[in-house]
Amino acid sequence: MKKNRKKWLKRIMWGIMAFITLNMLLPSKIQNPVEGGGKNSYNPQSFWHPWGDHKHRGVDIFAPKGTVVHPAVGGVVVAAMHTDGTGGNIVLVFSSKMRFHYYAHMSEIDTHVGAIITKKSVIGKVGDTGNAAGKPPHLHYSIPSVIPQGDWRWDSGMNLFFVNPVKELDNVGV
Fold first, then answer.
1. Please, are residues 74 and 28 in contact by the beta-carbon 8 Å criterion?
2. 32 phi and psi, to 5 degrees?
3. Of 133, 142, 138, nearest in space to 162 by CA
4. Measured between alpha carbons, how far is 59 from 45 in angstroms, rounded to an integer?
5. Based on the number of CB atoms within 10 Å of its own CB, is 3 exposed (0-12), middle (13-18) or buried (19 or more)?
6. Is 4 helix (H, G, I), strand (E, B) or coil?
7. What is the pLDDT along the chain (174 residues), one digit of tens a residue?
8. CA separation (Å) from 64 to 36, 72, 137, 151?
9. What's the predicted TM-score (pTM) here?
10. Contacts of 38 (CB under 8 A, 6+ apart)
């Protein structure tokens, strides 16, 4: 009986590992993470625009404070916290294609680390926290990746590739 239980447990574990691996490798279309957001809610020239001593690694999607934020893709929440740094209230989601999806400046966070989320989940609300304090409310959306993909730039200071989120949003006709 114990031998049979171990056999099934091993099969289940292999199945879970296969599912996770396939999910991380399969392509996934993104959606605009700001509810009701469209092409007119962000500047298509903002990715990699000079920003002080570095480049702007994402896109700022403007909306009224408190507007719902959904994940651009499904995945696993690996960070959901307030930082005293530039991002303020942030959520970081690990998804397919070995990508992270970074959401910053939110007025509130509505998820937790370890949550498995879909595009319909609510992860927070648009805000003005971090270095966005005193500026119009917006969501800073960025796609760091461990491998180069599509239209990307290399950030040697962070040792990461950054996928152009504007190209991703434009590709889905948002």
1. yes
2. -65, 125
3. 142
4. 9
5. exposed
6. helix
7. 566 777 777 777 776 666 566 565 666 688 999 999 988 999 888 898 887 778 889 999 999 999 999 999 988 899 999 998 789 999 999 887 778 999 999 999 999 998 988 899 999 999 999 999 999 999 999 999 888 887 888 888 878 899 989 888 876 543
8. 11, 19, 6, 29
9. 0.83
10. 32, 174
Question: Do 124 and 89 contact (CB within 8 A), yes or no?
Answer: yes
Q: Token pair of 107, please?
A: 């007025």
Contact status, residue 41 vs residue 63, Cβ threshold 8 Å: yes
| Closest C-alpha to 106, from 74, 60, 147 | 60
> Token pair for residue 118?
């879909």
Token match 């879909």: residue? 118
